[in-house]
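I had to read the description of the data format several times before I understood it. In essence, backbone conformation is discretised, so a fold becomes a row of integers matching the chain in length. I therefore recommend that a typical entry be quoted early in the introduction. For illustration, here is how one protein appears when written out as sequence plus structure tokens.

***
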Amino acid sequence: MKSIRQRASGCGFIVVLCASMCLMLIVNSALVLLAYDTAQPVLPAWMSNRRVVQAVLFAGPVLMIVVEWWLYDLAADLWHGRRKQDSAS
């Protein structure tokens, strides 16, 4: 069985990784903006401050990418059985 490291190297991998990150940022930004606009009527007044809105709209998609990549890594480890091997030793 070939290692994932052998397949996941080179310029093609970097291009696919960058393209997927850009797509994830676009989708995550749309989701955060939609969630903020939907929740805005029930949010406290300080959440309407321009600085807070800007921070939420910037940090939200970035944090979502971190969580998405963590979940992807966890799923890949479980799929390839590496979690079971690590915990057994």
Notes: The two ends are 21 Å apart (CA to CA). Residues 11 and 65 are 22 Å apart (CA to CA). The chain has a mean pLDDT of 86.
